[in-house]
């Protein structure tokens, strides 16, 4: 704007609730979305003769237009597997609440041999917020790296609090300055700073609210403030951003923010300053999953663990189509390209591998994160150095996905609309029976047995022995416990039986893993069990 350039920005896709607009600063031109006058018309004719106009990319010429029974599940209209279990949908039209269309293109790409990696979404950290939940999509969450753009807050009592900032002024004097906050409104909006004297002072601001973090800095600067400390709320925890602030600033975690507030409450003259030391490496909090990263469980298909994996997605130095040529950005849209690149490298090494094989290789060689649950990390943190040599792979053909869809008790036409191809549900499998590299089990009092098939892509002559770390309160038996291979691409099948050790557990879910180990490889599959 200062250069005479009008910047137009998206209002965001998080409506329609009030207060969901993005890019709210007054110097930005914030644009919402409207429809056009072009439609792919699909009309619903009801039994009373009324017609309801809709749209559809599927326009069959041979549809008979015969009146059919129209039903819906009143208690769950999303048409998940569970919602269709106890109602008769055969030969009927089912009313469903729409829940995404990316699956269609992803399935078509998979059939063409293309692996589609997708963001897990930035609506975490609450459970069930993961996006792109179909098993043929590679769903990627976001984690931190060991690189930090350090901005240290030194308090008047000598304590130092580590934060981050993309603005690293070399001429900051490090002189102690008064530290203040608006106790009744700490979000640092323009209004909250009107009635307090911030001139020459460092202002503590809560990072959430209706103003962007950088926007808060503009308000502090316009009010005469000398600097800003951004404090996370409890929901966003330890995830901090290194952003190009307009004033000296540090973004600190919720826990560290409480320490700063405690200091401010302990003295009548709180002071602070900043120490800017640039990039540091080997941070102790590396590879934590970002608060915004979408979490499981997979509400649409609980038998498929999502996200599949996590990759670097916080404070990523990225090329940018502007004069500066780079930007520091965070989001699962930053972690997803990491996995896309790794998948490309694996594909270049193994050009004959299917999308499912590549996905399996990346998941089973991931690094385990024992600090987070599997609904947060999936198989773990991606490890690109091991992905091209996994030893064993779990392969899936597109026909298997069709059987999986039919196992969800979708009507043929509903399954068609998920993958845009003809479906005949004469053959079907349970969700957890899909040859997936992970296990997500809903376990009641009866034992459950599932089958997996692995393909040898490591040493031609090799033996793998199973190691089990069972979820607490669950007995896990693998048969056979030893797999012997005599050639490459040889397939071996094993069964896993899950049973509860007690019916009195109050825990909602537990987790563990099974690992096939040879002299040169280990192939790990995460296990999450939800008690029914």
From TrEMBL:
Q: What InterPro entries does the entry give?
A: PA_dom_sf, PA_domain, Peptidase_S8/S53_dom, Peptidase_S8/S53_dom_sf, Peptidase_S8_Ser-AS, SBT, Subtilisin-like_FN3
Instruction: Name the Gene3D superfamilies on file.
Output: 2.60.40.2310, 3.50.30.30, Peptidase S8/S53 domain
Q: Does the keyword Protease apply?
A: yes
Pfam families on file:
fn3_6, PA, Peptidase_S8
The alphabetized UniProt keywords are: Glycoprotein, Hydrolase, Protease, Serine protease, Signal
Has the keyword Isomerase been applied to this entry? no
Stretches assigned to the Subtilisin-like protease fibronectin type-III domain: 433-529
Domain of life the protein comes from: Eukaryota
* Domain annotation Peptidase S8/S53: ranges: 107-380
User: Record's PANTHER family?
Assistant: PROPROTEIN CONVERTASE SUBTILISIN/KEXIN
> What name goes with this protein?
Subtilase
Instruction: Supply the source organism for this entry.
Output: Solanum tuberosum
């Amino acid at each position: 704007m200062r250069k005479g350039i009008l910047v137009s920005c998206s209002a965001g896709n998080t409506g329609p609730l009030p207060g969901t607009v993005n890019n709210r600063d007054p110097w930005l031109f914030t644009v919402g979305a409207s429809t056009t006058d072009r439609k792919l018309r699909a009309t619903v004719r009801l039994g009373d003769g009324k017609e309801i106009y809709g749209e559809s990319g599927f326009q069959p010429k041979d549809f008979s237009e015969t009146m059919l029974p129209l039903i819906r599940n009143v208690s769950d209209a999303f048409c998940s597997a569970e919602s269709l279990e106890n109602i008769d949908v055969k030969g009927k039209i089912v009313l469903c609440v729409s829940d995404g269309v990316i699956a269609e293109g992803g399935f078509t790409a998979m059939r063409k041999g293309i692996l589609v990696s997708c963001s897990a979404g930035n609506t975490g950290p609450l459970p069930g917020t993961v996006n792109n939940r179909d098993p043929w999509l590679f769903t990627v969450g976001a984690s931190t790296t060991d690189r930090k753009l350090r901005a240290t807050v030194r308090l008047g009592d000598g304590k130092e609090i580590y934060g981050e900032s993309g603005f690293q002024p070399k001429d900051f004097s490090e002189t102690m300055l008064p530290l203040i906050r608006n106790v009744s409104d700490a979000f640092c909006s323009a209004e909250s700073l009107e009635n307090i004297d911030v001139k020459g002072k460092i202002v503590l601001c809560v990072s959430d609210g209706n103003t962007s973090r950088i926007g808060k800095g503009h308000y502090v600067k316009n009010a005469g403030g000398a600097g800003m400390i951004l404090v996370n709320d409890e929901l966003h925890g330890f995830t901090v951003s290194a952003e190009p602030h307009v004033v000296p600033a540090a973004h600190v975690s919720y826990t560290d923010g409480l320490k700063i507030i405690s200091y401010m409450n302990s003295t009548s003259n709180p002071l602070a300053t900043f120490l800017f030391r640039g990039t540091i490496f080997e941070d102790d909090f590396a590879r934590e999953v970002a608060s915004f990263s979408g979490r499981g469980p997979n509400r649409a298909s609980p038998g498929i663990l999502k996200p599949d994996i996590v990759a670097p997605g916080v404070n990523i130095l990225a090329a940018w189509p502007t004069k500066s040529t780079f930007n520091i950005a965070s989001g699962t849209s930053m972690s997803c390209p990491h996995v896309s690149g790794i998948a490309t490298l694996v594909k270049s090494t193994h050009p004959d591998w299917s999308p499912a094989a590549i996905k399996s290789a990346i998941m089973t060689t991931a690094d385990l994160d024992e600090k987070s649950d599997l609904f947060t990390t999936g198989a773990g943190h991606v490890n690109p150095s091991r992905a091209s040599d996994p030893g064993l792979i779990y392969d899936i053909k597109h026909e298997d996905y069709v059987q999986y869809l039919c196992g969800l008790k979708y009507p043929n036409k509903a399954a068609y609309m998920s993958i845009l191809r003809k479906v005949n549900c004469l053959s079907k499998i349970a969700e957890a029976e899909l040859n997936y590299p992970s296990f997500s089990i809903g376990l009641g009092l009866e034992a459950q047995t599932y089958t997996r098939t692995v393909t040898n892509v490591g040493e031609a002559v090799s033996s793998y022995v199973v190691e089990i770390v069972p979820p607490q309160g669950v007995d896990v038996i693998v048969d056979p416990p030893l797999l012997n291979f005599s050639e490459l691409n040889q397939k071996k099948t094993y069964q896993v039986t899950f049973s509860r050790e007690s019916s009195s557990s109050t825990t909602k879910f537990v987790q563990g893993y099974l690992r096939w180990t040879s002299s040169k490889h280990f192939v790990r599959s995460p296990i999450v069990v939800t008690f029914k």
